[in-house]
Each structure stands twice: as C-alpha cells, then as structure tokens.
Amino acid sequence: MDETPFMVHKESVEDLQFAPNNANLLASCSVDGTIKFIDFRTEQRKKAEATIQVGNVDVNVISWSTASPNLIASGSEDGSVQIWDIRYLSKARSIADIRFHKDQITSIEFQPYEDSIVTVASADNRISVWDFSVEPDVKSKDDDIPDQLMFIHQGLEDVKEIRHHPYMSDLILSTAANGFNIFKPNYEEVHEDEN
After folding, report:
1. Exposed / middle / buried, residue 49 (Cβ in 10 Å: 0-12, 13-18, 19+)
2. pLDDT score, position 192
3. Whole-model pTM?
4. Residues of the chain with pLDDT under 70
5. What count of Cα atoms within 13 Å lies in the side-chain half-sphere of residue 66?
6. Is the backbone of residue 117 left (phi > 0), alpha (psi -120 to 50) or beta?
7. Domain spans of the chain, in order of start
8. pLDDT reported for residue 195
C-alpha cells in the first residue's frame, strides 16, 4: 500500500467524506476554498479527479446525499451553504445557495432518505433545516425567513456536530458546549388564526 499522502489541496483539509455509492471515491474540502474529488486507488497523489471552486472562503464541512449520491453539500466559514450536483461540475454553479447563518458552518448533513433536505449547524448557535426543493416565492413579504427554511433550533452554546438518526430520519442529534440534544423538528405550518 502506498503511504504517500494526498496533496491535492493548497491549504489545510477541513473535512473528508466517502462517496455513498463508490467505494473508491472520496471528497475533501479545504481552507483553499475548494472541494476535491479523489479516487484513492490512483498513483497520482497531487492531482484530484475533479474540483469545485466554492469561493474565496474556507470550506469547513461537506456531506454527500445518500438518497441521491450525485449531490454534495458544503458549508463555509462565511456562513454560506451550497448544494452541488457532481454530474455538472463543468458548469461550476451550485444548485442551491443558502445565505442565512451569521457565522461559520460547523456541521452539515443531508437527511438520510431525502435528497433535498439538509440540516445545518452554525457557530451562530443555531441549527437550521432546509428543503431546497421549495422554490422561493417572489411575492413573499417576509425577507427574513426564506421559503426553503423548514425549522430552526436555538438556545445552544458553541454547537459543533449534527447527525440524523440512521432509521428515524427526522430525529436529529446535536452536540454543543452545553451538552447534547436529541430532537425531532416540527415541520407543520402554524397559522396566526390557529389557537
């Protein structure tokens, strides 16, 4: 086995994730603002199979969709979240771009059985759940709450990790400085005229 390290990034690597449908493919993200895709069987240790230039900001975390393995989500230092379809890497545009959190993204994960729902943890002490299949309502009067935002969990201190339960996909585990939480988001709409 070749012990030569992979040197595909120009700066430190922040996260690594194996592809859910390819035993030899992994993705890495870096302070250099990129996501790189590596076939770790290769003898070429300094060149990635493909690259996404996310931006000029550190990419902290990534998550593959197990429901649609062509999708990967990234969370960055500036609080942004992007969803990428690796079938269209030559276009180098995200299929969703969420700019809601006020601080760095610390953890991100697709819901196990849904290809459009992503849970995000941020250093702004909030966890948010997004459905990027929802199209924004251009007539919406409330610009503070995006249409794709399904749920917010607050009251945490220094939230670090989130994970969906592997079988009960709506059940979320989060870790923070003030302990860990297990919760199930309520996705039902509340109307003002309801008691």
Report:
1. middle
2. 47
3. 0.88
4. 1-2, 138-143, 189-195
5. 11
6. beta
7. 13-183
8. 46
